[in-house]
Amino acid sequence: MAMVANIGMMDSAYFVGRNEILSWINATLQVNLSRVEEACSGAVQCQMMDMTHPGVVPMHKVNFDAKTEYDMIQNYKVLQEVFNKLKIEKHIEVTKLVKGRPLDNLEFLQWLKRYCDSVNGGIMNENYNPVERRCKGGKERHPKGSTKASKSLQSNNLPHHSSGDAPGFNKISGPKQGKTCPTSGLADCNSEIQALSGQVMDLKLSVDHLEKERDFYFAKLRDIEILCQSPELEHLPVSAAIKKILYAVDAKESALGDAQEIVLGSTTDDAVDDMGATE
User: 226 or 277: whose pLDDT is higher?
Assistant: First the structure.
């Protein structure tokens, strides 16, 4: 368990895409999330652990209708208690997760998927009924949300149909065209907006991952630089060669050749000194 909890940020688990994570959650728990930040309340994570470890999660304490940060924090407290019971050494960044930031929630869900897959091999418990467990645990958030959404869509569509009955519009386009064209045009616009929004989100996540990878390798280079600057090593030719590469400013030309000359030159000098000492 501890090994899975402590996987590094460059592990393949953190390169699982947003769509794959959402598909995994929706299929496993029979919900309909469209964005990873919709899982910021912690209820989804609690139920995933409930499926993975039946009987460990007190589902009656999980609030699936949590809206405020206070209610969300209570869900994460339940999750932390479960981690403690299972001796899972995983720190939960509650203050970041409840803010609903996509990257923070995606990373935690990526870790959660890796953990669940490590326990059950990615195979869902066939005897687990997620809808029934949510009903027993407390308020069932998503079915209500989907009902409200459908009602909202219906109410939003009504004005478009009624607008087609306006006399001024009928004189130009006729009754059928007045009802069909605006609705289809609006649907096309909405679908295009959703597609573009998804692309923007994917690009943001890609940039965030690239920045993390950049920081990861920069930290390594900084460690090497500090090591080469230590009093015991800074006067060695190999340290000078490494710093030659680190401090090179010309991106088009490699400093490897100059670094090799420094090392080879020092080797030649050492050989001459050894010959002189022998003589």
Answer: 226
